[in-house]
Write a structure and sequence with these properties.
heterotrimer; A alpha/beta (about 200); B alpha/beta (about 290); C alpha/beta (about 375); B: about 290 residues; alpha/beta; Rossmann fold; 8-stranded mixed sheet; 8 strands; about 35% helix; C: alpha/beta; 5-stranded mixed sheet
Amino acid sequence: MRLTEIRVAGFGGQGVILSAMVIGKAACIYENGYATLTQNFGPEARGSACSAQVILSDQPILYPYVVRPDILIAMSQEAYTRFTPELKEGGLLLVEQDLVRISDLPAGIRAYSVPATRLAEELGKRMVLNIVMVGCFAGVTGLLDPEALRRAVADSVPPGSKELNLRAFEKGLEYGRAKVGPLAEYPDAEPAIRAIEGLS
Amino acid sequence: MKEAAVINPVEPFLRMDRMPHIWCPGCGIGTTVNCFARALIESGADLDRLAIVSGIGCTGRVAGYLKLDSFHTTHGRAIPFATGLKLANPSLQVVVYSGDGDLFAIGGNHLIHAARRNIDIKVVCVNNLIYAMTGGQSAPTTPPEAVTTTAPFGCYEPAFNLPYLAESAGASYVARWTTYHVRQLARSMNDVLHKNGFCFIEVLSPCPTLYQRRNRMGDGLDTMKYYKEHSKTRHGAATRDLELSLHGDIIVGKFVDRERPDYLEAMQHRLREQLGERFVEQEAVCA
Amino acid sequence: MQADPKGVLTGAHFLDGDQACCEGALAAGARFAAGYPITPSTEIVERFAARIPTIGGVFIQMEDELAASIAILGAVWGGAKAFTVTSGPGFSLMMEHIGYAAMTETPCVFVNVQRGGPSTGLPTLPAQADMMQARWGSHGDYEIIALAPNSPQECFDLTIQAFNLSEEYRVPVMFMMDECVGHMTEKVEIPPAERIEIRPRRHTSRLPGEFRPYEANGDGVPEMVHAGEGYRFHVTGLTHDEQGYPAMNPQAQDRLVRRLKRKVHDAAERIALYEEENTEAADVVVVSYGITSRVAQRAIEMAREKGIPVGKFRLITVWPFPEAHLRALARRTKAFVVPELNCGQIALEVERAAAGHARTIPVTHAGGSVHQPEQILEAIAEALR
């Protein structure tokens, strides 16, 4: 895997850091890659805004911070507004459909609006929407082996909610695969705005 | 006629190879050490398992003269050092022996927290009402109106009432004596060697060189007379009433003697309750 | 000696540098920690507080850093391996006890997760501006050892080294992390306990009565005993003789202070951990440490892509400074480029060691982030001009 910069952003309590942890862990513990995760700390990280950055690579990662993300997973309007401009050209944007209204999208971004909250609610727990997003990320990007991600999910969530989170992951994965398919298989595909659902 | 060699009964407790000591004639610190040695005899304590920790100052030198495992630490920090020592090896009996400036000015924060936690250490505070090692400056214990080198026109700060402070912070045992009360002091020292938790003994002690002389209170002997005439023994007196003044009475006695779990007991109880079988008690580090 | 398996969390983990440092301390045998909360170091003791009750040991949150930094010294004399953890302002408060540990030869580890300073500075952002403070911060002449990790894996590995070095030389070891390394999460592999080498305490085999606490062996390091073992020994921060008794005269001072310095200084080559690459034929050598070494590595690779041969010298042991090594290197190269997250601290040491044989070009940064690799690349280009 070439060096891929990912930012996950939303608000506190959504499990933003956990989703980034799952992605990083899958890459470096359950696959043979490298991953570096950083997050924002301090007073500015308390309250609403929350963001984590993961870098994935098949080589040791030197520069520790994300500079221009290849992928942004946005779970709040604020996260969308703040971080979309830094996305690399041809970058991938995954947003949560109920929480983010896409507007003023820069050219050359592939954007997908995912009904993660609704999918999570179908499982009975809105709180697993973060893992639905991770599943969708897996389905859309094809960057990581879903089995590695499953193990990372199982290993990162409280034992009591393991089954639920694994179901959430599958739901997101299926959805991402069915609606888009792994983009990684077509790395040179024309950058285009596409909708999964709800994006005009 | 040759004088028969008489061995002082406290000699085995002292590092005789370090004598003579640095204390001035008339100073009371040596008297307290004598009482402590007598308390050690009385208590039957295992001297190989008793460590003494001092801070800095005249009383801070006590550690160096006692033939025990002894630690002369940094200014004000005898109590946190003792805390680490005790928690790392709970089988040790740990005594902190230091002065009023060391324990209540620079080290005041540590004293109140160790008392709050009820760390199982015994604190002997020799209170000479002044910074002596550095030449007679005001201490947080210097009574109003007393003259010091940094209060040349008389002190105008209120002083700490040490037993009140120690009790309020949570000490399990609080007593006060003067160096006139050698028997009572030795008995209190013996008491605390058998008492669990944070114990505090204040000993008023003359500093003829710097405190009594500057305040026209005479020499060491005059101070003994003053202690004798002005001391009132009131066991169980309310500690809030124990304030000292320049020429006033000195209430002495044992004021607090209560039971509550010490730090390690509380820690082990809580962790065992929460973790059950998973809790692992620390191994004794020394055999 | 092998590590006690009770403290070793063998396996592959996804940990941040702070958590990894805690695991390193547990693997090294630390069973006592005292701390006071301060960003960005607190996660280390938080993890210790959660882990130690099921391993056997004590964590205590003290009332301030003065207390934390001497409680650990008490614990060491009680027989434990102990450490404390802090950042900038707390590190400033601990200085007196670094001196006390050096003077009393108390093996212990001080972890400093560096943040921007001076004063409260940047609590949540990285810097490497305490490097000189780590070396010189306490009063008087003394030596310490300081290590600088650049990844969570090294936070684990080198914390064990830090404890081992502290036991070997009976000195306080400064573990100089930074916010970036402390809060960065990466894979950390923890080997089985039997593959972790632990330096036990240099406990004397002499009996009470035959033992002099500060009588040094050939390597200048005395043997140790603990309270409660029947030795009735004395420890003081005053200048002392071999018996441990205060001895306040210029002769005793000379003997003691010179030995305290010599025991570390003479072992500098053995203590020195570093990474060196392609310095043989390079006109420019980038000297870096800690998180900056990763950015420097990126810059070196960028330079090589442009066909510029650049050497790399990464300090893992920063103190004692590997002076002789740098001096030898200075004779072969034209310039040193020294990036660091401060306004030029270790660059001064490099310049001193180079003694005029090579130029030193500092690449300063006031802290709060890391360099851009391009800044270092630019300095490399300047060095070649």
